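Async update (no meeting this week)

Hi team, since we skipped the sync, here's where things stand on the single-chain job. The sequence we agreed to prioritize is pasted below, unchanged from the tracker. I ran it this morning and attached the output directly underneath so nobody has to dig for it. Comments welcome in thread, and please keep replies under the output.
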Amino acid sequence: YFSHAEEVAGGVGGMFGRNYENALEEMALWTQRLELGARFRDGNSEEDFIEVGSKLERTDSDRMMGFEFGGQYARTNGQPTANRWFGNVTIDLSREGNWILFMANRNEFDEFENLDYRGTVAGGLGYRFFNEKTRRIIVRLGPGVTYQKFHAPKVIRTTPDLLAEVEFRWPLFGRAQFEQKTTVTPSLDDFQVFRLQSNYGIVVQLGEDERWSLKLGLQHDYNSRPNVNTKTSDYTTSLRLLYQLK
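Output:
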């Protein structure tokens, strides 16, 4: 009995070990980047600001998969002043030459935009002008659909739209690199109704091993038709510490 139990335990342990090794090998194929920015103040006024982000990307001969997660939370004198989170997925499938087919999913929550949830699913054609480690210019364009749920007042709407995106990465000088990604989502019902998000960043490496970096960033969010009592534009500047796992 004990011999059989030891044999079963050994088999389970071996299977777990193999699965663990396979998981590590799979993760090693992904480029992983973690981002963290924080600011704290205590005294005559109290202020807490935390900004986090992560990017995972894997490129094979015929496809590229990218995942982005993150958000911002801020509080001043005990009262929340920012609470926003997002999660994005992009899959590029290589076609003849530099052409690609893409599928994209964008998800967002923003308490101070009165936005409970915004989700976009889109797909279409794209083109890679450059797609290297330090040089990247990729454009994407295709139809999609967006679901939005607001509160105060409660509004729920589902609209057909387009997703147009430009992803740009280019070295500047020394250890500095410029990054930019702009996504425009115009409504197919009315092209005067659209959303725009632009992210700009200058990344400076802090060491020879390319692990640690500082990123000075600017994010611009524009909604031509926001919910009641909210503004059309939001601007967020940040200074983040980056750690590159691969």
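Quick observations from my side:
The CA atoms of residues 86 and 108 lie 4 Å apart.
The chain is about 10% helix and 65% strand.
Reply here if anything looks off.
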